[in-house]
Design a protein that fits this description.
3 domains; Rossmann fold; oxidoreductase; 8-stranded mixed beta sheet; 20 helices; (3S)-3-hydroxyacyl-CoA dehydrogenase (NAD+) activity; N-(1-d-carboxylethyl)-l-norvaline Dehydrogenase, domain 2; alpha/beta; 6-stranded mixed beta sheet; about 45% helix; 6-PGluconate_DH-like_C_sf
Length: about 500
């Protein structure tokens, strides 16, 4: 098996679509002879020209020197037949997601390359074991899963099939580095790492809206402002396309034997069946105009003409809540029977807090402080609440320069629910050994632009808080969807860091 740093290292790329072009480009930029093959006549030659144009634009923008661009162009070749891949040291398959097609292609590649040649698939959903099943030398087959657009997205998943040799996985990691990607090694499993780990953000957002706790716009605003995600789950689904994220959700759900943690919601299917696929069709969860520009819709901000509250009582002693009140200029006193009563529950809904503390549910206003409240604050009330109390508190918060999102009663508000589910799925991936804790966090940050990895998010919530949120959701809904992992429970019980090895 040739060393990756060899000057004559040769990479074959089969499939000249968007992904194949991107893989060929980063391969050539890594200084490797790169051979493109596509079954469609002229497609490989066209891909070479397209890549050359991209390199020229990088030079124009000052991102690459003329010399480097010229060198990369010189690395790219194209062939019309599989036999043209005979000299390759690694072949990366990037054709459409069809198992029969991939198995047939891998057999053809095996017939022409040496037994030392690594054959990798860029598949995002088909198990590597299924592809390798048709191969003569199964140990040299692995996954090399890039993310679109490849030249921009730095992550590459190295997928180890059941029979993938250690040297093959190690070499593919080095190959990824030579392509200036950041590799993470992942076990062969449905959705691999990123497509599995990304399920919780969208599916729990969907569940919040399905439960009529909040609107898509409210969920997105909360997750952007209070948890610093670049996009909320609904605008993210519209960007990737409902025709993409809905089928992937089903594949992962079925692949994990219908684990309720991974279940999507009926409203997801309804949008898919209606053909409202997001930006590409002009409408999904939101409406879009020319060029995919969002059309302004319902505001996530709570508006009220109520007079700001001057004084509140606290449902229970809470130094963090008391400090928040002081920060927004809200005096805390004894309950006079008329003032709003504040609480900052972790996991609980307003109803549970009222029953547990004896606070008057009609005047109780729950505030989510387990996130960043510098620009937006989420408030919720119990059924039957006097909304004038909520509005008075909201007016005070707005007067402090913050926005307010008012939601219906829910264990864990919005931010706590979604964050806890994202983090719990991360601990599940660590628990089953899908990848190392560090690689799980790294992959989710690089692959999905998360502000922190799921295990880091668990630490940020606080492990005991994390367990409390999930247990409260499980108790309220009766669903195993919210069961905390054993990985999380043990580390919370022992007061250990979330990434402590088993």
């Amino acid at each position: 098996m040739k060393k990756i740093d060899a000057t004559d290292y040769t990479v074959g790329v089969v499939g000249a679509g968007a992904m194949g072009q991107g893989i060929a480009q980063v391969s050539a930029q890594g200084g490797m002879r790169t051979i493109i093959l596509d079954a469609k006549p002229g497609a490989a030659e066209s891909a070479k020209a397209t890549i050359a144009g991209r390199l020229d634009r990088m030079v124009e923008k000052g991102r690459m020197s003329d010399t480097a661009a010229a060198a990369a162009k010189d690395c790219i070749e194209f062939v019309e037949e599989v036999s043209g891949l005979a000299d390759c040291d690694t072949v990366v398959e990037a054709v459409f997601e069809d198992l029969d097609v991939k198995q047939s292609l891998f057999k053809q590649i095996e017939d022409v390359v040496s037994d030392d040649c690594i054959i990798a698939s860029n598949t995002s959903s088909i198990p590597i074991a299924s592809i390798a099943r048709a191969c003569r030398v199964k140990g040299r087959v692995a996954g090399l899963h890039f993310f679109n657009p490849v030249p921009i997205m730095k992550l590459v998943e190295v997928i180890r099939g059941p029979e993938t040799e250690d040297a093959v996985a190690a070499n593919l990691s080095e190959l990824g580095k030579r392509m200036t990607r950041i590799p993470v090694t992942v076990k062969d499993a449905p959705g691999f790492l990123v497509n599995l780990g990304g399920r919780a953000f969208t599916t729990e957002g969907l569940r919040v809206v399905h439960d009529a706790v909040a609107t898509p716009a409210q969920v997105d605003a909360i997750m952007r402002d209070c948890r610093h995600f670049r996009m909320g789950p609904f605008e993210l689904m519209d960007l990737t396309g409902i025709d993409v994220n809905y089928p992937v959700s089903l594949i992962v759900y079925e692949g994990y034997m219908q684990d309720p943690r991974l279940k999507t919601s009926p409203i997801h299917k309804a949008l898919h069946d209606a053909g409202r696929l997001g930006r590409k069709t002009g409408g999904g969860w939101f409406q879009y105009g020319e060029g995919g520009k969002p059309v302004p819709g319902e505001s996530p901000d709570h508006e009220t003409n109520a007079a700001p509250a001057k004084q509140v009582a606290l449902a229970e002693d809470d130094p963090v809540l008391a400090a928040f009140c002081a920060d927004i200029g809200l005096a805390v006193g004894t309950d006079d029977g008329t003032c709003p009563i504040l609480a900052a529950p972790v996991g609980e809904d307003a109803t549970t807090v009222a029953v547990r503390t004896g606070a008057d549910f009609r005047r109780l206003v729950a505030v989510d402080l387990l996130c960043d409240t510098a620009t937006r604050v989420t408030v919720m009330t119990a059924p039957g609440a006097d909304l004038s109390a909520r509005d008075a508190v909201a007016a005070t918060i707005v007067a402090s320069g913050r926005k307010v999102t008012a939601i219906k009663d829910s264990p864990g508000f919005v931010s706590q629910r979604i964050s806890a589910m994202v983090a719990n799925l991360g601990t599940f991936m660590a628990e089953i050994g899908l990848a190392s804790p560090d690689d799980i966090d790294l992959a989710m940050k690089l692959g999905l632009n998360y502000p922190m990895g799921p295990l880091e998010l668990s630490s940020d919530l606080g492990l005991k808080n994390h367990v409390e949120i999930l247990e409260a959701l499980q108790a309220m809904t009766g669903e195993d969807r919210y069961r905390p992992t054993s990985w999380l429970r043990r580390r919370a019980a022992l007061d250990l860091p979330i990434d402590t090895p088993s």
